[in-house]
Fold each of these.
Amino acid sequence: MDLTSNYIRAIKSFEQIDIAVLVNNIILDAVHQKASDIHIEPWESTIPIRLRVSGILCELTHLPHELLDRISGRLKVMADLTTYETELPQEGRAPASPDYANVELRVSIFPTVRGEKIVIRLFDPNNRSFNLESLGFESGTIDEFRKIINQPSGLILLNGPTGSGKTTAIYSALCHLIESHGPTISISTVEDPVEFNLPMISQSQVSNSRGFTYPKALRSLMRQDPEVIMIGEIRDPDTAAIAVQAGLTGHMVISTIHSDSTAGVFARLINMKIEPFLLASSITGVLGLRLLRTICSNCKTETKPNPEHLTQLPESFVNETTFYTGIGCESCSQTGYHGRVAVTEFLNTNEILREGIIQKLRTSKLRNIAIEQGMTTLWQNAIAKVQRGVTSLEEVIRIITVNQL
Ligand SMILES: [Zn+2]
């Protein structure tokens, strides 16, 4: 039984609730379940408290409506927000506290017609090291990725939706560089927000409200003599231009960018007014990334997948494969899954692909060239994990959309 439900059960009336204890209990439950976010949202008759665990929202408990204003008031105090403001969105950070397992909170409050919707993102700010080998990358990907991060210059891009493991992969790459070079390498980051504090790396957090934007931070950072620069995300033309320039002038730059596919990052950057020849000469590789839930080893069972799903697979693959799923048990909270593993697609910007980028070829053409040049796709790598019984076919179909086939 979770702390929150236990606490609610133990009190006689809602007037007796110590709101600080209730909020701490919700956070402790989230930390215990390894959740990334807490959703507190007014529905018609209750406020469900939901946790995002391994990328999926699950219910922790339901609370009565009369507690919503007190919970939001408490979180506003913790995150230093305006307590009487209920009509406008607000965002803030609450520092880590031993009262709630030393996690840092990023609180976002959004007005809805039924009251304020609250989403809390949890961060573990403790010094932590990250390991490239433990991400579960395919061996081909890890070799190529290691090769390009060890080059003295160039721009490396990671691509995938929110929550696909991009930050963890970048932090692991930076930790790998620190391990191999020690104090002889200068690494700086500009992030929004800093998610973990890394040893021997200068990390800065942009603040748009104070005018400390990505472009401003990066222009100053270039005068700080860094060898490696990590940019949290490229999302505007100015940041894109500086990232490309830095990659061309003797810096190793690593960043993330949103686009609908790995090969689509070139079109995205051309839309940001970057000249194709600059992209072709600066970008050394693009890593597409997704996370797949792994089948719970405790309740793993052979299964016959949905026949409709099977039509997407080659017949020989279906004949040779034993499909598995998790039927749900106590140790996986009846989800059938336990933990996640990365699935990747590594696009190496070689000579032939560079030619295609300069010619502004369509994304599908660039993708075909990459495949001809030996790129194993997200889909191929994912179904290999199905064949090894690591994940289920349903999970692959849930995460990898058809245009990535
Ligand atoms: Zn299980």
Amino acid sequence: MYDYIIVGAGSAGCVLANRLSADPAVSVLLVEAGGRDWHPFIHMPAGLAKLINNKQINWHYETEPEAALNGRRLYWPRGRVLGGSSSINAMCYIRGHARDYDEWAEAGNRGWGWSEVLPYFKRAEDQQRGASAYHGVGGPLSVQDLRYTNPLTAVFLDAAAGAGQPRNADFNDADQIGFGHYQVTQRDGRRCSAARAYLSGIRARTNLEIMTSTLAHRIEFQGDRAAALVVQRGGAEVRLEASREIVLCGGAVNSPQLLMLSGIGDEEALRRHGIRPRVKLPGVGANLQDHLDICLLQSCSQNITYDRTNDLMVGLRYFLTKSGIGTSNIAESGGFARSSRAPDARPDLQYHFVPALLDDHGRNRLPGNGYTLHCCALRPRSRGSISLRSASPGDPPVIRANYLSDGEDLEIMLEGFALSREIFAQAAFDPYRAEEILPGAAAQDRASIIEFIRTKAETIYHPVGTCRMGQDEDAVVDAELRVHGVRGLRVVDASVMPTLIGGNTNAPTIMLGERAADLIATRSARAA
Ligand SMILES: Cc1cc2nc3c(=O)[nH]c(=O)nc-3n(C[C@H](O)[C@H](O)[C@H](O)COP(=O)(O)OP(=O)(O)OC[C@H]3O[C@@H](n4cnc5c(N)ncnc54)[C@H](O)[C@@H]3O)c2cc1C
């Protein structure tokens, strides 16, 4: 019996485990399907390239064939280890645009406007550059400037300026627009995952138990109250009781799956899998939104990219001195820009520059040297879904992203891709530019570029929205992240975002965890 059971030790789950167990009077259990984060490539930032395909610490999901992407199944890595996806991500620290949060609040989600969430971003943060109106110091999540950047990163930023894009030294202050270096979630050259930030200092707490290699199967109810979590542990099913709350932090793919396995979702769909419906919430698994990304790949005439580095020397230097290429997050710089179709002042395009050839998430190693520019449209209109494949918790759910099902998303990508090419064409790249590899110089007309996008676009790993916060009948949680129609059950992770924010999603998910911890603590103080 525990007071709180948290399912999933990812970006949000680690925050909650820390904040809730800060009260020695409550007992907290954190359940994680994956193992401990012992792998050295988790902690060495550049090791991320080696983790992308690692089946031990990665759920290794695939979408169903995507109709607008030539029927391709897209690879969806998600972290399955302490720290969740924050243990395998690219560490770019981005919050999104202030207006994104004001829109959440305007949709009826009280307390989630920018002025209300900013204090939680700051509370989480330990900003290397010091405190300011926008940044916090002393928090668990270390945000730092990169210790090492490739010479091509500076070239890229000059090229962006040459293409008329403003420079931006901080994407997380008043103005998001422009190009610059990403700040990263690192401490002294090591990855600062949510586990590192929020769990490493509190292992001695006797009121916090962390169970790894434990897969949550379903929630059991007493009347309308979530009373127990059934997990698989060491080959057997075990029932764990929660006296106050169960909090799902399994991420945008797994949290809706777990709700459905527990009888919460669309009644007809649940019956089809032999699951007795308990709460009718047709919105569970709906409203899936993700950033679809298209890469421009250019050959480099000089041997200065990360394609042919000596891994042994990089590793040695890193482990001895925490310096050099090993500290790079590879996506060292990027930017935010507006297409001509942007409906308001917010940037609707994001770029990540990689001084290496990057095809198929880095799983397809290309010969030679080169550099890559990612571009994604920030507020897609297309909506997908997560649904059950079967009633077995071990079966991966069905992921239908429905990318580009709304034609406007394609138009914005086309504009974004045109800017990618314009940047690579600038004089700053003259000493380095060899032939264009993908799509290749022959692809110039609209039809060829559309075909290129359909053949090569991939996720940039930001699925959200599948347990959407809201008050309407398709919403899954209320503004306090409590699941509608039951007691003692919340969802706190990227799945509750009503709409995808304009940027990377780790810091926003950590902010959700911070604010949820206060909501939970305030409510239980009121009840006591
Ligand atoms: C390759 C990659 C690169 C990325 N790069 C960036 C970046 O540079 N910057 C950025 O801001 N964001 C990035 N992201 C996105 C960001 O990391 C995620 O949005 C964020 O981590 C999501 O947090 P979460 O808490 O919702 O889920 P997660 O962090 O994925 O955590 C979910 C946890 O729950 C566990 N779990 C799930 N189901 C169960 C179950 N049934 N039983 C027990 N445990 C369970 C999982 O194993 C996992 O540990 C990236 C993501 C990926 C995959």
Amino acid sequence: MFSLLYASRSTLQPSEADAAVKALVSAGRSRNEKADVTGCLVFGAGRFAQILEGEQSAVEDIMRSILRDPRHTEVAILQQGEAATRRFADWTLGYAGPSLFVQRTIARPVSEALRGSKRGMADLIHVMTEFHAKQTIASSLPSA
Ligand SMILES: Cc1cc2nc3c(=O)[nH]c(=O)nc-3n(C[C@H](O)[C@H](O)[C@H](O)COP(=O)(O)O)c2cc1C
């Protein structure tokens, strides 16, 4: 199992970003599902951060497309390598954004991670797994 974390800067106009990101997430989900790739995307304060996990060749294939995507720029791969388990096994492409909460939560760890701070990177991964855990808890509650 291979896992990759990157961060980038959005080139989308703020007024169109929400709709544009939702569209790319929905297209990305079906491609990720076919490739057995899972992960999580966060968007806020003009930044994206994403974790992709799966077979190395499958992750790298999708990452090649992501790298040439004009909807963002300054794509920085922060971490990649073998991982024992998937963090987002049930998420083909979990998405959090662009609420004020997400914006405030990811802004600092993303900029610190981009400056090469290991602590920033760990915080960013932590925030993403927390989004995942909360979502899992919320979706496991019986509906009213
Ligand atoms: C921030 C960001 C994250 C993306 N994440 C994914 C993803 O997880 N899976 C995916 O298939 N495409 C994702 N895309 C879209 C790809 O860049 C690409 O448009 C799509 O996979 C189609 O590939 P192609 O242009 O090589 O045909 C993402 C794009 C951006 C800007």
